Amino acid sequence: MHRAQPISPSSLRNRLCRAIAALLCFCMPLLWASDSPADTKSLEFNHIERIVWRHNESAAQQIQEIARKREPVVIVGSPSADWPALSRWSSTSFWRVACRKGDGNDKKLEMRLQKRNPVANVDLKKDLTQIAVRASLVDESQFEDSSLVTRQCQLIWDDEQHTRTAYEELVAKSGSLFMYLTMELEKLNSSLLQDVAPYEFMFINESASSIAVDAHGNILSRISPGHGNPRIWLSKPLAPDTDIKVVMHYDTHHNFNVQVAGTKKFWLLPPSAWRSVAPNPVFHPSDRHSRLPLSEVSAILQQDTNGRQKLLQATLSSGEMLYIPPYYFHAVEAQFATKNSHSLEGAINVNAFSLSQEWSTMLTLSQGTSTLLRSMHGVASSKVGLLNVLSNFFKQAIPSVLGDTAQAPNNEAGAAFESFMTSVLKARWQPTDVSHTDSYLCDNFSADMCPTSQFCSVLTGPQRTAVTKAAEQVRNTLNPRRSVPCMESEVHCKKQKEVHAVRELMLADFLEGIAVAVLQSQACFFLQCMHALC
Fold this sequence. Notes:
The protein contains 17 helices and 18 strands. The chain is an alpha+beta fold.
């Protein structure tokens, strides 16, 4: 194990601040492909509930009602079923509409050519990932499975010649299976918004003023209810017999997703399935995405729940809308008929992201570190002292949030903490059969590497007080009202279970971000040893 270098207080504070900032921002994704395609033909699943839109009721009221339940549902007959885009757009004719002369044809578009299947979003530029790369925790060369092609809109479709010259060039690219594009419709061509009118009803308002976010959680603006900028997702195969798949992942905000062209299958799981899904840790280039093929996720789920829980599945047709709640895992599969590669039709979706209360909570959670940062003075140059500050912080914050009473004996609180950490490390940090060989994986760790309790004296009284205050703020943020015992009904217990799981995912992200930002290459050591420290 590498020896830790002394860390100055100012450097430590800067690292922590960058870690929190990175946790609160998802930047523009690239695409990464898993080596093991998911076979979905033999999966066991239950169908997602389908409901019919009620035209005699307020659209805003119906959307708010759906979002409050936090359960996925397919909505049939909503205003999206009458969008002009349903008849005007296909993956080929869309370019003629979007790139017509004098209306967006001079804009440069970034399209990703994907070489392998299935895919996951990848962000190599975010601060936490860059820290992990510099610490040799992640090898960024493992994620170069696709190429970015920039073209002017007018070169994709020429109105005068009625040819797809740039598209023919894309098809000719050797080794590319499909093309992928995502961006806000208004930035592509504002006139496209007319084809998806009305779209305002898809944005919801969970606070005094609604907040619109982009695909990656960045706040765009505070807006009046019912206003926002929808986003297009276009995928098109470049070779016959190519079914485009996206690995299971979760988003942190409300997602109302409309099928415009083609058909797609969506496979969903609730947040409580995160131990079976095994999402990557927060600093990973493909964080929030599963490390396993969908078929293996399904098999593990059946084993972990004794067959009680199954995947949820919905197939969307033109005009239908799917609601995906915050933190719900979902995988996507677009299937296409075998045709000549030059005439293969793709799939187009338009969706609306709205900030959720869950993500607002994550934003507030960052404030809990301000007191913690001040407590670092005097111990920042000591590795063991630093470990004890952080372990005290999380050991005080986590048991209460995970459901233990604040008055629980130390041994019980410690057991809850250790159980949670074991689950995090097993699901997110240990190797799998299909994992890339990133060095952050905790496969060669031994418990005797942890320091003993003789180092507990490094924390002074004021430092302990500061840590306690910081932990209390985290507890109040994630658990403002103590949940009552699960005795009311099966539905109530199910919802309580999912709220609890979302808290676990938030804590895991928060803990991993600080561990990597502060201890870098020794992050695994810190996460393994926290329960053994005072």
